[in-house]
Amino acid sequence: MNGTLRDSSDESKTKWLMALPGAAERLTLFSAEAADSASFDTAMQGADADAVFVACFPQIYKAADGTPARDLDRKRGYAGIVAPVHDGRMRHDKVPAGSMSVSHVGDVAKLFLAAYETGARGRFFAVHDSVPWRDLYAELGKHVPADIMPEPLDGEPEDPTRFDFTRRDSLGVPMRDIPSVIAETCDWLKGRSFG
To answer: Shortest CA distance to 31 belongs to which of 16, 54, 9, 55?
Structure first.
């Protein structure tokens, strides 16, 4: 089994993958960049693949000042859209008016496996739902100190993104709700040391 990530020599990232059951014997990692489709060629060479799974970074549709991504020049686009994803989720000083699509990584893996095992084809939305940032921070506030929370949103949030989950639900994989995802993630983070 082959997998890709930006830098397959970065042990701080690969150690988590290689610690998965059976990974040491069956997983080979390659470096690849999403912006360069040719960088995936090495991972695919000689592979008699039954399936290819693509897990993308979260989409950011506008810069912090509200400028839509399509209206940003190359420099501002990189700084406002690409860099926050590359460097990790940005910290909000104030709760944004927008929304975020959320799912548990374990549920996404189960959806990938169910799609593979049933021979499903096409696009499936592997998210539980899209929720206003205001509601996400309200839920997160039950698990973290209040002094690290962003300032509240002025006014009402924008309508969250809506999905047709008919195809996702046809796979029969139960998705954890967002309070459960946040609680499990916070519990996991509190129990781990990242140095």
So the answer is: 9
Distance between CA atoms of 176 and 108, rounded to whole angstroms? 10
Which tens digits make up the pLDDT trace of 36-83? 788 888 888 876 777 777 776 566 667 778 888 778 888 887 787 777
pLDDT in tens, 93-119: 899 998 888 899 889 989 988 998 999
CA distance 101 to 107: 14
- Structure-derived torsion over alpha carbons of residues 113, 118, 120, 125, reported in degrees to the nearest 10: -40
Q: What is the pLDDT of residues 112-147, one digit of tens each?
A: 889 989 998 888 888 899 999 999 999 999 998 998
Helix and strand element counts for the chain (H, E): 9, 4
Among 83, 184, 178, CA closest to 135: 178
pTM strictly above 0.70: no
Spatial distance between the Cα atoms of 186 and 148, rounded to a whole number of angstroms: 14
Q: Is 100 exposed, middle or buried (0-12, 13-18, 19+ CB in 10 A)?
A: buried
DSSP assignments along 90-143, one per residue: PPPSB--SSEEEE--HHHHHHHHHHHHHHT--S-----SEEEEHHHHHHHHTTT
* C-alpha to C-alpha distance for 126 and 101, rounded to whole angstroms: 9
